């Protein structure tokens, strides 16, 4: 049978990628938490009229955290497929993947404070005057 190429193959790839995202959202509580905070950050950016360059920075951090959460989910699934027994290397793989998400999330919080701090301060000062 002839291998399909072009648009069909691309659309299949998109379907598989979406299935992976859906799996992570449905099975990983932390992915749902990240999506909740994504919505809150985007709503806050709109409310505070965050400038375009700062919004792009926030979107980059959002993409980084969500992507690493997907990688973390993939690593956990692959390790669980290989072994159900406790093993120091399985633990190290899972912990390192979770650590990558933690580093990105912490950096995102710092970026959020830097981006949201001044406009939020101005907004609160307006209310108090």
Characteristics:
129 residues; mainly alpha; extended
Overview of this protein structure:
With 129 residues, the chain is mostly helical. It is built from four helices and no strands. It has helices at residues 7-27, 29-47, 52-82, 88-128. α3 (52-82) runs antiparallel to α4 (88-128).
What's the quick description here?
This protein has 129 residues and is an all-alpha fold.
The proportion of residues in beta strands is under 5%
Percent of residues in helices comes to: over 70%
Quote the average pLDDT. Answer: 94
Which regions are unreliable across 5 or more consecutive residues at pLDDT < 50?
A: none
Sheet of most strands: none
Helix/strand order, N-terminal first: HHHH
Put simply, the count of helices is: 4
SSE inventory with pairings:
Elements: H1 7-27, H2 29-47, H3 52-82, H4 88-128
Helix pairs in contact: 1-2, 2-3, 3-4
